[in-house]
Design brief:
The chain is mainly β. The chain has 4 domains: 133 residues, Beta Barrel (OB fold (Dihydrolipoamide Acetyltransferase, E2P)); 78 residues, Sandwich (Immunoglobulin-like), CATH 2.60.40; 98 residues, Immunoglobulins (Immunoglobulin-like); 88 residues, Immunoglobulin-like, CATH 2.60.40.1120. Helix content is 4%, strand content 48%. It is built from 2 helices and 34 strands. The strands form 8 sheets. Strands 9, 10, 13, 15, 17 and 18 form a 6-stranded mixed beta sheet that branches. Strands 3-4-5-7-6 form a 5-stranded mixed barrel. Strands 12-11-14-16 form a 4-stranded antiparallel beta sheet, with no helix packed on it. The radius of gyration is 30 Å and the shape is elongated. The two termini are 35 Å apart.
């Protein structure tokens, strides 16, 4: 396979797009074993000539091999073509007559390719790599390992290593573990090639961006660097009651970070539980607004209806990093008439469907309102509605968008019968 660079496109008014090369950063810890065992061929060669490849952006480099370290290329004295891209597409800048240590990778059609994203380098600059290759041939290299950082993501691209975090690496039923050092680094030796799963044990104040990461160790002596990014697990808990003090279930509650108030993707919403309680987790530190709001399609009424008349309660505060903050109970005013909608989701076979998502739409069906309810083990759900408002309700199986129920049109009123939504495959 080709080494795959990341192409950044910069648009300039009135000009064609310009592509620049940006490689994934090389491992600063693994060194030569990080690529020696991953490359299909590693060899030393002198460049004889450089010509055009099969594509205008491709270069064919004719080289004379002086030493083969691993792979299927010929031995010393043989010739082979190495293909690379143009320099702006991460192609390696070979020079005729110079000698290089080349890390090659086979393309789908069997050709040998390299790029600046590899450890390919002029021979005089590859002393460490050549020494490792020599020791690898002699069978005296260190054992393979998985290394990396457990790091807290902060502002922008900054990271801070987290010490004393337990890192777990599992393979073929065996689990290895270690603690990160004072800089947040970890290292675990491996004894065989194959698929490994990397995870961490964190306090409730933090969470990993990727809970478990699957990596491939190419050789028992190979090295793979994998970082674990961690964020603060801020939590806000509270309760929503009606004017009489009873808990309101199925009502959307939204956390809005005030520094990103206009960015909707930064908002986090949950539904209240049956007793009106809720907890919103995985929140960043900083000033916030928690809004409890009835799901009402007001887009076409906003010119005539004041926003504060729609029905909402707002709480503001500041959340510390990893803090669990319990805020005061939100009591809905009597003007906010809430209707409890109960129902059940079943499949085409009539069996209850757990973990289905139940959505609300306005009567026009143009936009989703609030957040979906998730059915329990018996397929049951609860949603809070605004009395007198028209809605469409439908459910879908989360693992397959082509399985969903027909929308049911209702008007929220007291004494409503429970809904039964049947999810079927549609395509």
């Amino acid at each position: 396979m080709w080494f795959v660079p990341v192409l950044l496109t910069i648009w300039v008014c009135g000009a064609q797009p310009v592509h620049a090369c940006s490689c994934t950063p090389r491992s600063t810890t693994c060194g030569p074993p990080g690529e020696y065992w991953r490359a299909s061929d590693v060899f030393t060669a002198r460049v004889v000539s450089i010509g055009r490849g099969n594509h205008p952006t491709e270069r064919r480099v004719d080289v004379l091999i002086t030493k083969r370290w691993r792979g299927t290329v010929g031995g010393a004295g043989s010739r082979v073509d190495v293909f690379t891209r143009s320099s702006r597409l991460c192609g390696y800048p070979f020079k005729t007559g110079r000698e290089y240590l080349i890390y090659g990778s086979r393309t789908e059609d069997g050709r040998l390719a390299t790029s600046t994203c590899s450890r390919t380098a002029p021979l005089e600059a590859a002393i460490e790599d050549v020494n490792y290759a020599r020791n690898a041939v002699a069978g005296i290299v260190p054992a393979g390992r998985i290394v990396g950082d457990v790091r807290l993501k902060t502002t922008g691209r900054r990271h801070t290593g987290i010490p004393n975090v337990r890192v777990l690496v599992s393979h073929a039923g065996n689990v290895l573990s270690t603690l990160t050092d004072a800089q947040g680094r970890y290292e675990i030796n491996v004894t065989s090639a194959g698929r490994y799963e990397v995870g961490v044990t964190l306090p409730e104040t933090h969470y990993a961006v990727q809970t478990h990461q699957i990596i491939e160790v190419p050789h028992a002596d190979g090295c793979v660097e994998r970082h674990v990014d961690v964020l603060f697990n801020g939590r806000i808990a509270g309760r929503v009651t009606d004017a009489n003090g009873g808990g309101v279930a199925g009502l959307p509650v939204t956390h809005i970070p005030l520094q990103d108030r206009l960015r909707r993707e930064k908002r986090t919403s949950v539904l209240t539980r049956d007793d009106g309680s809720y907890e919103i987790a995985r929140l960043p530190p900083g000033p916030f607004e928690v809004r409890v709001e009835l799901p009402v399609d007001v887009a076409d009424r906003l010119p005539r209806l004041a926003a504060d008349a729609i029905g909402s309660t707002v709480t503001e505060g500041v959340l510390g990093g990893g803090e669990r903050l319990v805020i005061d109970t939100s009591s809905l005013p009597r003007s906010m008439d809430v209707i409890r909608l109960e129902g059940r989701v079943v499949g085409a076979d009539g069996w209850s469907m757990a973990d289905a998502r139940v959505f609300l739409k306005g009567d026009t069906g143009e936009r989703l309102l609030g957040v979906p309810a998730i059915t329990d083990a018996l397929g049951r759900f609860v949603l809070a509605l605004s009395e007198g408002e028209p809605y469409q309700v439908f459910a879908e199986r989360p693992s397959d968008d082509s399985e969903f129920s027909e929308p049911v049109s209702i008007t929220a009123e007291r004494g409503m019968a429970p809904l039964r939504l049947i999810v079927r495959r549609r395509f």
